[in-house]
Amino acid sequence: MERVKTGIPGLDDLLNGGIPKNQLVLVTGTSGTGKTIMCTQFIYNGVTMFKENGVYLSFEEPDYYLKENVKSFGWDLDKLEKAGKFSFIKYDPYNVEDVLNILESTIKEIGAKRIAIDSISALGLYVRDKAELRRLIFNVAMILRRLECTSMLVSEIVYGSKGISRYGVEEFVSDAVIVMYYERFQSSFLRAMQLWKLRGSQHSEKLHPYKIDENGMTVLSDQEAFIV
Ligand SMILES: Nc1ncnc2c1ncn2[C@@H]1O[C@H](COP(=O)(O)OP(=O)(O)OP(=O)(O)O)[C@@H](O)[C@H]1O
Ligand SMILES: [Mg+2]
Description:
This protein has helices at residues 11-14, 35-50, 63-71, 77-82, 98-110, 123-126, 130-146, 170-173, and strands at residues 3-4, 19-20, 24-29, 54-58, 86-90, 114-118, 150-156, 176-185, 188-198, 207-213, 216-219. The chain is of the alpha/beta class. The structure holds adenosine-5'-triphosphate (ATP) and magnesium ion.
């Protein structure tokens, strides 16, 4: 099976070499766990290390916000965008069906191979009906597969809630799920992640610590985390 390396230190080890090509990974966790950073690093590395163009679709943040935030890691997204290797879509949905066309045309325009959608749960704000939401998420997934992209989809977990996604449908369209935790242990908070599923592959079943510093995200794939 061909693998797409994220280039995020340690993460590819958890994924047994990388994300299986054309698959969808759900990146899920409570607020502040680092979901946006993981997606951005995946896209940025794609262009700079692996010559694969990327699209970032955001429902949450305008482009200058994301771009400013990741400058501290040394990632210059403006430069990639000017070179036609990266495209940021900020979506303000009045007609949610539009988003599929915009996404598809942007992917084709720059020949993108890596896509991040931050967040897929945001669609739930505009589509109240659960069946309709499921259909919409399913359609997004279908487009990404048809265009042979490898993708990260973000879902938020509301702190204290049960389940691994916001609406309980996001994980079903995804081939893999990464759950990120930020939990108190004694007097401090620890970051840890777990690969919840990876279709068709063996993978780590442990909880692994990760850190976010001036280099972005690093997963300590050879260590185990102990949080309750
Ligand atoms: N330059 C940096 N150095 C160290 N840590 C940082 C840096 N930038 C961000 N962080 C850490 O990353 C966290 C935010 O990560 P990120 O925005 O990816 O989270 P998120 O899961 O997307 O959150 P949300 O669900 O609210 O969008 C911050 O709370 C901070 O702890
Ligand atoms: Mg975020």
